[in-house]
């Protein structure tokens, strides 16, 4: 099985996740650029608690959903 490509952004994500917690980290960008792959690779490397939520279906995402994700993430 081929090894997955590791993007340069992974190191920045790791740096941000290892900083003292002041903000929730959000990874966003165009579809199909590797956001999910990058964050999964990073989370495999780090031993940190996390909450992962995908917002791929914006039609079902509203303020209530965002508040729920915020509370879970806290």
Discrete helix count: 3
Biggest beta sheet summary: none
Whole-angstrom Rg: 14 Å
Order of helices and strands: HHH
- What number of domains? 1
How much of the sequence lies in strands comes to: under 5%
Looking at the chains present, what oligomeric state does this protein adopt?
Answer: single chain
Q: Give the beta-strand count.
A: 0
Helix content: 40-55%
Question: Kindly, what is the distance between the CA atoms of the first and last residues, rounded to a whole number of angstroms?
Answer: 37 Å
Q: What structural category do the secondary elements indicate?
A: mainly alpha
Mean model confidence by pLDDT: 86
Give an overview of the whole structure:
The chain has helices at 9-17, 35-45, 63-73. With 74 residues, the protein is mostly helical. The protein has one domain. α1 crosses α2 (35-45). The N and C termini lie far apart (37 Å). The mean pLDDT is 86.
Brief characterization of the structure:
The protein has 74 residues and is an all-alpha fold.
Write the layout of secondary structure elements.
Elements: H1 9-17, H2 35-45, H3 63-73
Question: What tags apply to this protein structure?
Answer:
74 residues; single chain
């Amino acid at each position: 099985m081929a090894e997955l490509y590791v993007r340069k952004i992974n190191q920045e994500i790791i740096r941000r996740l290892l900083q003292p917690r002041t903000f929730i980290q959000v990874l966003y960008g165009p579809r199909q650029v590797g956001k999910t792959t990058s964050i999964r690779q990073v989370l495999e490397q780090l031993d940190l608690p996390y909450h992962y939520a995908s917002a791929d279906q914006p039609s079902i995402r509203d303020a209530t959903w965002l508040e729920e994700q915020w509370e879970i993430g806290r």
